[in-house]
Amino acid sequence: HEDFIEFQISQRSLAQYDKDVIHEKFTTLLKMSGLEFNKTIDTEYPSWPPDFESKITSVSKSVYKDLFNEEVKIQAIHAGLECSYFSHHFPDMEMISFGPDVLGGHSPDERLKIRSVEKVWNFLVALLKNLV
């Protein structure tokens, strides 16, 4: 039985290039250590670069403004894992991701702002009506 250290890394990024750079830096550090290592990739999360000029983004901004009388804050964050899979398999599909306010995500303290659920629901219904 040999002594070993096991690293499990879960990488997500908006751009594949950024994931490749991080992967290469980590591999370089392992090589510099002089230790023997084996590398196995179990799961690869696809990237999902934002398209701020898409039609669905434009419609979403308009619907949000009409519904809530304020500008929507559009930003790219490291979420939307499900969208990245759809984007990978349907590259021409326009999509957005939105949801209620989550605090402490992926931690024992994860919680949801209940009041934000109604706002998201109303936005979803209005958006779907405008897309049909």
From TrEMBL:
<dbReference type="GO" id="GO:0006508">
    <property type="term" value="P:proteolysis"/>
</dbReference>
<dbReference type="InterPro" id="IPR002933">
    <property type="entry name" value="Peptidase_M20"/>
</dbReference>
<dbReference type="Pfam" id="PF01546">
    <property type="entry name" value="Peptidase_M20"/>
</dbReference>
<dbReference type="GO" id="GO:0005829">
    <property type="term" value="C:cytosol"/>
</dbReference>
<dbReference type="InterPro" id="IPR001160">
    <property type="entry name" value="Peptidase_M20C"/>
</dbReference>
<protein>
    <recommendedName>
        <fullName>Peptidase M20 dimerisation domain-containing protein</fullName>
    </recommendedName>
</protein>
<dbReference type="GO" id="GO:0070573">
    <property type="term" value="F:metallodipeptidase activity"/>
</dbReference>
